[in-house]
Specification:
The complex is a heterodimer of chains A (166) and B (511). Chain A has 166 residues and is mainly β. Chain A has one helix and 16 strands. In chain A, the strands form three sheets. In chain A, strands 1-2-3-4-5-6-7-8 form an eight-stranded antiparallel barrel. Chain A has a four-stranded antiparallel β-sheet with strand order 9-16-14-11, with no helix packed on it. Chain A has a four-stranded antiparallel β-sheet with strand order 13-12-10-15, with no helix packed on it. The longest helix of chain A is centred in the middle third of the chain and has 10 residues. In chain B, strand 16 and strand 17 form a beta hairpin. Chain B has 18 helices and 23 strands. Chain B is globular. Classes of the chains: A mainly beta (166), B alpha+beta (511). The interface between A and B is large, with 56 and 58 residues.
């Protein structure tokens, strides 16, 4: 099996094959390694990689994987088929503004068709007593408003689309 | 002594107060909002009362609902914790009027310290040093900010004090209505906008002007005062490690403290508390000059008329349980020790664990805590508001836990804290733990030279370590393999040896 993870700005590909009691695993185009795994409890496993043993905590929610190794916690996203293309297309669409944090939309300050100036507040989000202003990255026209006041949004959810006039 | 106490708060502080009650044989009542049905503080209380919908304004800040809950459960006292209603004089009054004891100061003391201009006037009369400033009373300023005092008076005051100055809201707090002004030409704008913001936030447009201190230390003194006229301080706390005016690391003793300075500041702190006839636990906050001259200046900043978030470090070095003393004082007991009995033993540090993402501009992080494992070691205390399976919601403060380390020396305490943070695993919500460890490991922190501006300046471009060890990817991929095979529910014998598959608690999609 092959799994793709979104790690910061990179994509990592992990190949896993069953091999007797363990697995043969390779990352990207690296060499394959023999791994055996022992599960201590619901969120704790020990990996035996060659002569080295490491204890790891792991938890999963939707596509997100949380892994604690040593002193550090890492967050990675499992990519589903097709998400690479989606990601690429959303990145090219620079005028589409996403929620940088989960929270509630407490104000939608613009309507579709409005002309906006650079830095103008379009939407205000609130979470944990903190207000976050979503501002126009450049002057332009509001093409679409995708949320309404009072709505609860996830991090990364599209809020407004602005077509740049520059 | 009380038989039952209602705790008008949530999260880690509600749990910490309940622990003190339990140890004293006092029954506890929790209150909760609809968002907190499954919260830890509800599970740990003897009784719990639903007081309203998720928004704090309709539940934890709703005085009527809290009073109803205390009447219904027959609790004899209310502990307000910190935040929420803890510094609202009208709440303390309503509790009294209901015939219930408020575990805290009198409504008058809360009111006196709540108005910053009023507090300045009282402190001046009591001989407590103040930041040079100009603070006419709200009456002199009039409701709309155009009363007896003219804007020209602010201009001449600012000239006299010398720029840069701060414009602050008299009813202030939380950084609202605060402006830094570097020159006279910017003062009018700052006055106008600070008044607008203050009017909106506090319903009082009064402002005052203070000199802006450059890179000061924030040092505060813990006060304990009983109802019989005994007022003493339980040493200081250094709280200069702040991110955007929010404390993140506190320690005691303060690295800059000398016996002579402690005597001067302690005396001023006690005088400040006495000036408002203060009873119960409270904290006097000072700013201290960064320059290390023997005659170092300090200035009264404000008084917090409640228990502080960072009270555990004082408990660690003094050996006193401050919450138990709050309860005993409210019940009328006398402090059985004097100022001379208060001694510091060792050094204590607290780190605040926030559900926020340091790599994403410190924005809040919410979700279910999928796994939490707290550090355990001699001298390490964890006051946590969450545990495995609990939800961090968007409605309340992002503070989810406090880690406190107590050791013989400052260096030992730093090392102990670093190890404790490394051993604190929280999966499911992003926390600032890695950030805290980097601040703790900084040269400035090691030297005890952290000022209130340090973290914002030195860690402006902080980002977490990006190299992901292969083991992390391997563990993730193996969890997919297992999950996928569980999904297809094979009964293939060849899987019988798979340790992940044999365990039955692995829930897909929920962790």
């Amino acid at each position: 099996m092959e799994y793709r993870y979104n790690v910061g700005k990179h994509i990592k590909v992990v190949r896993v094959e069953r091999d007797g009691d363990g697995y043969r695993i390779s990352i990207d185009d690296g060499p394959s390694r023999d791994v055996t795994i022992t599960r201590d409890d619901e969120h704790t496993v020990r990996l035996q990689i060659g002569s080295q043993q490491r204890r790891v905590h792991i938890a999963r929610a939707d596509q997100t994987r949380w892994v604690a190794l040593g002193c550090d916690v890492f967050e990675l996203k499992l990519m589903q088929r097709g998400t690479e293309r989606q990601r690429a297309s959303s990145e090219s669409d620079a005028g589409s503004l996403q929620a940088q944090m989960p929270g509630q939309v407490i104000l939608v300050a613009v309507q579709e068709g409005d002309e906006v100036t650079k830095g103008q507040t379009l939407v205000i989000l609130e979470a944990m007593k903190m207000e976050l202003r979503v501002q126009a990255p450049s002057a332009g026209r509001v093409k679409r408003v995708l949320v309404q006041q009072g709505q609860v949004v996830e991090r990364g959810q599209q809020l407004v689309e602005v077509v740049s006039s520059q | 002594m009380f038989q039952k106490i209602l705790i008008a708060n949530r999260g880690e502080i509600a749990i910490r107060i309940m622990r003190a009650c339990r140890e004293m044989g006092i029954a506890t009542v929790a209150v909760y909002s609809e968002a907190d049905r499954d919260a830890l503080h509800v599970a740990l209380a003897d009784e719990a009362v639903l007081i309203g919908p998720a928004p704090a304004s309709e539940s934890y800040l709703n005085i009527e609902r809290v009073i109803e809950a205390v009447k219904r459960t027959g609790a004899q006292a209310i502990h307000p914790g910190y935040g929420f209603l803890s510094e609202r004089a009208e709440f303390a009054q309503a509790v009294r009027d209901a015939g219930v004891t408020f575990i805290g100061p009198s409504p008058d003391a809360i009111r006196a310290m709540g108005s910053k201009t009023n507090a300045r006037a009282l402190m001046q009369a009591a001989g407590v040093p103040l930041v040079p400033g100009f603070a006419p009373s709200s009456v002199q300023q009039g409701r709309a900010g155009v009363g007896v005092v003219a804007d020209a008076d602010f201009f001449s005051a600012a000239e006299r004090i010398g720029y840069s100055v701060m414009v602050k809201a008299a009813a202030g707090g939380g950084g609202k209505g605060m402006r830094v002004v570097n020159r006279a030409s910017a003062l009018q704008d700052a006055l106008d906008s600070a008044r607008r913001e203050a009017e909106k936030a506090f319903g009082d447009a009064s402002v005052y002007v203070e000199k802006l201190l450059v890179a000061p230390h924030h040092v505060e003194f813990q006060i304990l005062a009983d109802q019989h006229g005994n007022t003493l301080h339980v040493l200081e706390r250094e709280c200069s490690a702040q991110r955007r005016h929010q404390k993140i690391i506190e320690e005691t003793p303060s690295p800059l403290m000398t016996l002579a300075l402690r005597a001067r500041m302690g005396e001023a702190a006690v005088a400040a508390a006495r000036a408002v006839n203060y009873v119960n636990a409270g904290t006097i906050e000072f700013l201290v000059d960064a320059d290390a001259s023997p005659s170092r200046n300090f200035y009264f900043l404000e008084m917090n008329t409640r228990l502080q978030v960072e009270h555990p470090i004082t408990e660690a070095i003094s050996g006193l349980d401050l919450v138990k003393w709050q309860i005993r004082i409210a019940a009328g007991e006398r402090l059985p020790f004097t100022q001379d009995d208060i001694r510091a033993r060792g050094h204590a540090i607290e780190c605040r664990v926030y559900a926020e993402d340091p790599a994403n501009n410190f924005l809040p992080s919410i979700g279910r805590v999928l796994f939490a494992e707290e550090p355990r070691a001699p001298g390490v205390r964890v006051d946590a508001g969450v545990s495995t399976g609990r939800e961090v919601t968007r409605f309340y403060d992002p503070l989810i836990a406090k880690v406190i380390a107590h050791a013989e020396t400052r260096a030992d305490a730093i090392a102990k804290m670093d190890r404790a943070l490394a051993d604190y695993t929280i999966l499911g919500v992003t926390t600032n733990i890695a950030f805290l460890r980097d601040v703790l490991a900084s040269d400035a922190f090691a030297r005890g030279a952290v000022t209130t501006q340090f973290v914002d300046e030195a860690f402006a471009d902080w980002s977490p370590q990006l190299d992901m060890p292969d083991e992390v990817l391997i563990a993730a991929a193996l969890s997919e393999t297992t999950a996928r095979r569980q999904e297809t529910a094979t009964t293939d014998d060849s899987d019988a040896h798979d340790p992940w598959l044999r365990a039955d608690a692995f829930r897909l999609g929920h962790g």
